């Protein structure tokens, strides 16, 4: 993932919208590809196979990509009130660590960790998107944050049921990825209007 960090000669930070457009595009594409790979590999976490190893890597990788995106956003130097981004980064790191342990337990543990992360990260996403509404493209992030909170609750509920499945995580990631891509397009269009 590449980002613009501003003018090297002046040391000024880059405008936030182009950085977010890059981050949103990368996250959107990653989420959709990740979802397809998870659907292909996520038949079970019970047996020790090469396919299970790929599933484990995918589960831990997703919050790490979220962490990287938050750090790029912070590094852009244009984040107003960056506390929410620090919270998001911390939540993503905790989720990655929690998932690394949960995959050694069972599917219910994975869904509980993922669900808790989806709820808390969704709240942060809502807060950040509302604060950035003037940039354009943030309505999709507001929807994504709200859906993340609801989906997280669903994952927590699903963890205790017989119908528990990793497939629901793939659907969640696909929808989130599409929202990121919509935001990237809207930011691009907003930038075109300003020029």
Q: Let me know the average pLDDT.
A: 85
**Which residues form runs of ≥5 with pLDDT under 50?**
1-14
Shape: elongated
Question: How many DSSP helices?
Answer: 6
Residues in helix, %: over 70%
* CA-atom Rg in angstroms: 17 Å
Largest sheet: none
Overall structural domain count = 1
Distance N to C terminus: 25 Å
- SSE sequence, one letter per element: HHHHHH
Number-wise, the strands total 0
The amount of beta strand, in percent, is under 5%
Class by helix and strand content? Answer: mainly alpha
Give an overview of the whole structure.
This protein has 195 residues and is mainly alpha-helical. It has one domain. The chain has helices at residues 16-41, 50-75, 83-102, 107-131, 138-158, 167-194. α1 runs antiparallel to α2 (50-75). The longest helix is centred in the last third of the chain and has 28 residues, at 167-194. The chain starts with 15 loop residues before the first helix and ends with a helix.
Task: Jot down its keywords.
mainly alpha, disordered N terminus, single chain, 6 helices
Write the layout of secondary structure elements.
Elements: H1 16-41, H2 50-75, H3 83-102, H4 107-131, H5 138-158, H6 167-194
Summary of the model, kept short:
With 195 residues, the protein is mainly alpha-helical.
């Amino acid at each position: 993932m590449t980002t613009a960090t501003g003018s090297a000669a002046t040391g000024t930070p880059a405008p936030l919208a182009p950085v977010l457009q890059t981050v949103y595009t990368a996250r959107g594409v990653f989420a959709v590809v990740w979802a397809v790979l998870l659907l292909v590999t996520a038949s079970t976490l019970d047996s020790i196979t090469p396919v299970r190893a790929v599933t484990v890597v995918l589960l831990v990788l997703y919050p790490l990509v979220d962490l990287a995106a938050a750090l790029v956003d912070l590094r852009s130097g244009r984040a107003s009130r960056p506390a929410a981004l620090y919270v998001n980064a911390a939540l993503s790191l905790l989720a990655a660590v929690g998932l690394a342990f949960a995959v050694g337990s069972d599917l219910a543990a994975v869904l509980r960790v993922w669900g808790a992360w989806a709820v808390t990260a969704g709240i942060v996403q809502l807060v950040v998107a509302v604060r950035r509404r003037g940039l354009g493209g943030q309505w999709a992030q507001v929807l994504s944050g709200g859906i993340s909170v609801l989906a997280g609750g669903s994952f927590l509920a699903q963890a205790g049921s017989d119908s528990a499945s990793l497939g629901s995580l793939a659907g969640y990631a696909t929808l989130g990825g599409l929202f990121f891509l919509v935001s990237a397009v809207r930011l691009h269009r907003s930038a075109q209007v300003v020029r």
